[in-house]
Structure to design on (460 residues):
C-alpha cells in the first residue's frame, strides 16, 4: 500500500481496519551506494557515494518537476551497476570520472534542455576540476547519418543524432526504455533509425556494437 | 487487456495468446535458433495507461519475468528489450517510470526547418530550378515569421498544435497543389508566370494550414500580418480577407 501514490488505489477503511499497518522508511541511499560501489570494485567508494547521493538529492530539488524524472533508489542502483561495468571495462580511468560518466549517460537523455545546464552545474560543483571526456561513437554516428540520408531525411541536426546515440546508451543500461516526446519530435524515426544503423553495422561485420 | 496479454475464455477455460505474451514466447524460442544473438526490441508505440503498463512491472524489473493471467511465468531472454514510445507520462505511475530508462525528445532538438528541407528534396522532380529554391527559400522565411507571430501574438488556437504539425500540413497542401500544376520542363509554356503561380499556391497553403487553426477573433489579425509578409514577396497580393481567397486557375 502506498497512500497518495499515483496508479494505486486506496484500501477501503473497512478492510484497512482488518490489517495491521506498518510504515516503511526511505533507506539511507548513501550506505547502499557505498556498499554497491565497493562490490563493483571501487576503492574510493565512501567519498564517491557521498557525492553521488548529494547529486541525486540536489537534482531532485533544483531541476524542474517532470513526470518522467525519477531520482529514486532504482535510478541510483542502475547508475551504480553501470559504473561498475565501466570500471571493469576500463581500469585505467580514475574512478570519479567513471562514476560521473555513468551518471551523465544515464541521466542526460531524459533531461529537458533547460535542465541540462543546471545538471552539469551540479556535477561541476560536486566534482570540481574533473574533466569528463565525451565518448566518440565514430562509426555509429556515420552509420546513423547515412541511414537518415537513405530515408531522405536531414542528417545535420546534431542534437537529434545525439539523442539517437543516447537511446543506445540507455538501452545498454536498462532493458525497459521509453522514448518520450510530443507529436512530431521524431520518436518513431529515432528508434527505427537506431535499429537500421545497428543492423547495418552488424551486416558490415562490426562486432563491438550492440546490434 | 486480453488482446495484449492473453486471456482465459470464461466459458471454455481455453487460453488465448495475447500479443505481448506471443512476442515474448517467440523471442524465448529464438534464443535457441540460429539467430540467437540477434537483439530483439519489443516496441510499444502509443500512450501509456496505468491499466496495462502496471502488468509490465515484473518484466521491467531485474527479474524480467512476464506473468500472465493463466499463471504462466515467462522469463524474458537477455537479448530482449522493451521499448515504449509515449507522448507523456501523466498517468504512468512512478513505479513504471523508475523502472524505465528515459530518452526525452523536445521539439527544439529537431525543429521544423528540416521538414521544409526534406520536402524541397522530395519536390525536386516536380518543380524545376530556379523556382524550387526560390519557393523553398520564401517558404522558410514565411513560416519562420508567421510561426513566431503565432507564438507571440496570435495565441488563441482552436486545437492545440505543434509547430511541426502546422508546417507539415502546409507542406502537404503545397505538394497537392504543385503536383497538380507540375511545373516542369515539359509544360513550361503552358504556365505564363510560374513564379507567380507557385507563390499563389504558397500563400493559399500557408493561410489554410497555419491560419486555419486560428480562433475567429484573431483571424483578421492573422490576415493582416500575413498580407504584410506576403506583399514584400509578391507586390500584387490583393487586399481583403485572406480567408475568403481562392485561386483562379
Amino acid at each position: 500500500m502506498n497512500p497518495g501514490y499515483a496508479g494505486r488505489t486506496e484500501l477501503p477503511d473497512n478492510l484497512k481496519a482488518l490489517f495491521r499497518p506498518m510504515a516503511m522508511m526511505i533507506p539511507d541511499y548513501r550506505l547502499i551506494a557505498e556498499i554497491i560501489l565497493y562490490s563493483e570494485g571501487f576503492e574510493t567508494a565512501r567519498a564517491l557515494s557521498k557525492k553521488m547521493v548529494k547529486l541525486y538529492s540536489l537534482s531532485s530539488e533544483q531541476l524542474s518537476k517532470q513526470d518522467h524524472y525519477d531520482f529514486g533508489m532504482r535510478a541510483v542502483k542502475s547508475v551504480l551497476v553501470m559504473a561498475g561495468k565501466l570500471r571493469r571495462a576500463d581500469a585505467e580511468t580514475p574512478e570519479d570520472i567513471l562514476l560521473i560518466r555513468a551518471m551523465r549517460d544515464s541521466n542526460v537523455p531524459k533531461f529537458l534542455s533547460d535542465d541540462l545546464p543546471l545538471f552539469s552545474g551540479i556535477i561541476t560543483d560536486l566534482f570540481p576540476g574533473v574533466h569528463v571526456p565525451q565518448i566518440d561513437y565514430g562509426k555509429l554516428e556515420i552509420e546513423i547519418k547515412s541511414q537518415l540520408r537513405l530515408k531522405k531525411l536531414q542528417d545535420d541536426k546534431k542534437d537529434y543524432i545525439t539523442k539517437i546515440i543516447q537511446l543506445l546508451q540507455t538501452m545498454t543500461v536498462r532493458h525497459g526504455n521509453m522514448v518520450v516526446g510530443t507529436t512530431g519530435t521524431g520518436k518513431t524515426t529515432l528508434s527505427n533509425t537506431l535499429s537500421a544503423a545497428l543492423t547495418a553495422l552488424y551486416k558490415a561485420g562490426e562486432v563491438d556494437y550492440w546490434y | 487487456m486480453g488482446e495484449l496479454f492473453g486471456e482465459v475464455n470464461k466459458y471454455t477455460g481455453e487460453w488465448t495468446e495475447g500479443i505481448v505474451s506471443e512476442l515474448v514466447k517467440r523471442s524465448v524460442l529464438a534464443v535457441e535458433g540460429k539467430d540467437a544473438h540477434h537483439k530483439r526490441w519489443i516496441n510499444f508505440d502509443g500512450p501509456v495507461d496505468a491499466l496495462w503498463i502496471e502488468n509490465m512491472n515484473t518484466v521491467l524489473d531485474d527479474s524480467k519475468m512476464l506473468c500472465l493471467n493463466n499463471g504462466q511465468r515467462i522469463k524474458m531472454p537477455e537479448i530482449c528489450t522493451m521499448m515504449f514510445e509515449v507522448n507523456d507520462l501523466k498517468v504512468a505511475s512512478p513505479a513504471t517510470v523508475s523502472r524505465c530508462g528515459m530518452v526525452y525528445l523536445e521539439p527544439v532538438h529537431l525543429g521544423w526547418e528540416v521538414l521544409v528541407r526534406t520536402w524541397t528534396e522530395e519536390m525536386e522532380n516536380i518543380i524545376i530550378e530556379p523556382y524550387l529554391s526560390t519557393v523553398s527559400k520564401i517558404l522558410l522565411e514565411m513560416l519562420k515569421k508567421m510561426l513566431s507571430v503565432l507564438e507571440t501574438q496570435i495565441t488563441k488556437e482552436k486545437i492545440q498544435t505543434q509547430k511541426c504539425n502546422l508546417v507539415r500540413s502546409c507542406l502537404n497542401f503545397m505538394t497537392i497543389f504543385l503536383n497538380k500544376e507540375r511545373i516542369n520542363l515539359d509544360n513550361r509554356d503552358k504556365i505564363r508566370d510560374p513564379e507567380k503561380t507557385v507563390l499563389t499556391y504558397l500563400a493559399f497553403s500557408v493561410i489554410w494550414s497555419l491560419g486555419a487553426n486560428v480562433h475567429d477573433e484573431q483571424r483578421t489579425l492573422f490576415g493582416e500580418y500575413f498580407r504584410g509578409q506576403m506583399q514584400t514577396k509578391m507586390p500584387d497580393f490583393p487586399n481583403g480577407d485572406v480567408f475568403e481567397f481562392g485561386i483562379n486557375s
Observations:
- Chain B touches chain A through 55 residues (CB under 8 Å).
- Chain B has a mean pLDDT of 77.
